[in-house]
Design a protein that fits this description.
It is globular and about 45 Å long. By secondary structure, the protein is α/β, with parallel strands linked by helices. It has a single domain, classed as 3-Layer(aba) Sandwich (Rossmann fold), CATH 3.40.50.150. Bound molecules: S-adenosyl-L-homocysteine, 3,4-dihydroxybenzoic acid and magnesium ion.
């Protein structure tokens, strides 16, 4: 089908992979529909990426998870479902309406017992977590405003321990990260995040480009090495 636009092909491949790999009992499309019905932007992680986040939790036996950027709790639900019953997930969201929709989705999915949604600017919530003496998190997922990624990286390191996994979404954005002269603060934040994380001796980090229903983008995975 060489005349079809690539995006159409990527969409169809994602759909096929979802059909083959996401089991009916783990399907969370109702949450996505509820997010759209409530007017939330369509920027949740893809189902296949949500599943990967859950699998990273399973593989690493993570019990304490921190998420920055809740939206309607779609990625939150994938991660919370992978936690043991006594696991705990803290998710940070600026927008009270998003947080409210997320609470409803998390309750419907039966995981609200494991999840705490904190409303407010993430940088403040992160500071408060540290002031409270929060125990280190085992996995941290950064997916809020991209201009603040360098700040979120700093806080992540403070709230981490050796072997903590840090996942960062949207690190490619259709290749915009190549533009050193960009005026776009989100792109600048992502570029700076990659520079800082890539040169931090306490982190081992890689990133992969992705294509699919989220177009051309990518994610980074880092682990705290000491
Ligand atoms: N992780 C979600 C998608 C998050 S979208 C999922 O995959 O389902 C990004 C979210 O970050 C939005 O809900 C937005 O309101 C929130 N956000 C933006 N700026 C923020 C800030 N300064 N602090 C906390 N959350 C913020
Ligand atoms: C945007 C944010 C995201 O986290 C994402 O996955 C896709 C798009 C955005 O702000 O446009
Ligand atoms: Mg994202």
């Amino acid at each position: 089908m060489p005349s079809r636009p690539r995006q159409d092909l990527w969409n169809r491949v994602d759909q096929r992979l979802e059909q083959l790999l996401i089991r009916p009992e783990e399907n969370l499309s109702a949450a996505l529909e509820s997010n759209r019905a409530d007017g939330l932007p369509s920027i949740d992680v893809s189902p296949l990426f949500g599943k990967l986040l859950g699998m990273l939790i399973t593989i690493s036996s993570a019990r304490r998870v921190l998420e920055v950027g809740t939206l309607g709790g779609y990625s939150t639900t994938w991660m919370a479902r992978a936690l043991p019953k006594d696991g705990h997930l803290v998710t940070l969201e600026l927008n009270p309406h998003h947080a409210e929709v997320a609470q409803a989705n998390l309750a419907r999915a039966g995981v609200l017992d494991r999840v705490e949604v904190r409303v407010g600017p993430a940088a403040e919530s992160l500071r408060k977590l540290q002031e409270e003496g929060a125990k280190p998190f085992d996995l941290i997922f950064l997916d809020a405003d991209k201009r603040s990624m360098p700040i979120y990286l700093d806080w992540s390191l403070k709230l981490a321990r050796k072997d903590t996994i840090i996942v960062a979404d949207n690190v490619v954005r259709d290749g915009r990260i190549l533009d050193a002269d960009t005026k776009d603060e989100d792109t600048q934040g992502t570029r700076r995040f990659l520079e800082l994380a890539g040169s931090n001796p306490h982190l081992s980090i890689t990133a992969l480009q992705t294509v699919g229903i989220k177009e051309h983008d990518g994610f980074a995975i880092a682990v705290v090495v000491d």
